[in-house]
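Limitations
The structure tokens in this dataset are predictions for the assembled complex, not deposited experimental models. Users should treat interface geometry with appropriate caution, especially where small molecules or nucleic acid strands are included. An illustrative entry is reproduced here so readers can see what is and is not provided.
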Amino acid sequence: MRRLFNLVLFLAVLCLAACSDESKSAPDGVVSLSPALTELICHLGQEDRLIARSTACDWPESVKSLPTAGNFAEPELERILAMKPALVVSNEFVNPKDADALRQAGIAVELHPCDGFNDYREWVSLMGKLLDCPNEAETELKRTNDHIAGFESELKTSQKKPLRALYVIWDSPLLTAGADSLPDAVGRLAGLENIVKTEKGYPSISLEFVLKEDPDVIVWFAHGKDWKSNPSWSGIRAIREGRVLVPRDDSALLRPGPRIFDGIADLKSDLETMFAGKESSEDAQP
Amino acid sequence: MKTARIILIYLAAALAAAVCGVLFGAARIPLSEFVQDGALNPIVELRIVRTAAAAVVGASLAVSGLIFQAVLRNSLAEPYLLGVSGGAGLGAAGAILLGFSAWGFMSVPLFALLGAVTANVLVFAAVRRRTAEELLLGGVMIGTLASSLLMVLITFSHSRDMAGVVWWMLGSVQNVDPARQLAPAAVLLAAATVFLLFRAGDVDLLTFGPEYAWNHGVNARLMTVVLLALASLLAAVTVSMAGIIGFCGLVVPHIVRRLHGGSHRKILIPAALAGAVFLMLADILGRVVSPVRELPVGMVTAAVGCPVFLWLLNRSRAGS
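Predicted assembly:
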């Protein structure tokens, strides 16, 4: 009888210990200051753990009901500390002093770059560990690799020459996506070739360079800006001939998150429509 | 040296700079390709517009700086002193960050102009005794207030919009509408130059102080307000067209005054032409440094103007 009692006691203690470990490894209070990471957390089925988001986090629709806690570069420290989260995740642009202040308050802080597919894969693995959902993370990693392999294989089998593209992030001054940027990687999978090859990041380039390169298509990420009223743009042949493509949802393409492959598929399809007939290209203009 | 000869020399320099502005850029274009299929090569067309814009902006800033330095009797005076840069920055940032830039290409320049003129009007309205010194202090205060409000806007902005504001503030003559921006700015510059040539004697007298000018029959207070308002309007129009371009309005009038004396009738047109040359050359330098990127012209003016100015300063001191 005593043995049985000891066994039951041992099992109960073990169970309690397991439960306490579980709560340690899977924090319930998560603050995400990056839209891409917010999307990833929700995609992994961990939305319930989110207690706050950044001002830019707007997908899925349900996260809009969460309180905001600043943006990726400037977290609102007081508000975050008052929420007492277990974990804050964002990209590397958070001021190190802010990150230290959060860590000193006992909050785990994970800051890593989130610029391309490799960064995304690393974040998926990390989230799998941090949020204790390794199976979901594994599934997402496989989905990511399958999609990339699929797009690459389509490019290999296609006989078409890549279309030379200019990615417009901002129109005046002209900010574009450089060689190692996310739009560059995304565009490559959609069958585009960036005309900016030597500059990295998001450089400001000269209109003269664009005129000289004469891109086949302009992918317009400058949401809400109009290329038609700017006289400096009228010299560019792609503008004159209506080959400007406005992505259906630029956030899907500019965020390295789970929706990025839908964005690439849409971009690819819109490009095919644009170059199949002139009428379609005019439809693409806002 | 006679005034006509000085003007001819500056005019020749301006023409040479303009030709260089059309010939040189990020792309190498042979003369045979300047005209293609009966139409001007778009790259050449772009260069002509931006070279003309650099000339008008540079000349306007130099004339504006010349008047500020003369009226305020302060060698550190520059065109943006009466709150123009802060007001224009706030107007442009407001247009970009609050989404008005979606109204079309002209919305940002118009908001910048509105901000600059509003800041200017506020300075004149807020300062009761409109002496040069008090207007200067009022300008610093309104400029500081506008800059603080700009920071508030930036704090609530998205990163992409913020990049647009920062780049706008660095200054560029790349995106200038020839009909809606360049032509009105050129007309204003021409009108201001003619007016100032007629009133150059009054400007000369004001450099000796308002009492001295008053004793020689000039309504010093009225003339101070008129001249500063005109100089600020010139600066406001340039800033709405090309962003905030520093150094040109500070350094060029200095150099011209040191080279040719203090008679404003003699140095007004040389100063305007020197400003045009300075900014045209700065713009060329900004676009030939890299075949892809472009250096903001405001950065080039500071980088080039500073050592040139210090060299001239030391040279003239050694001479004296």
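Some entries come with short summary sentences. For this one: Residues 3-319 of chain B form a domain with the ABC transporter involved in vitamin B12 uptake, BtuC fold (CATH 1.10.3470.10).
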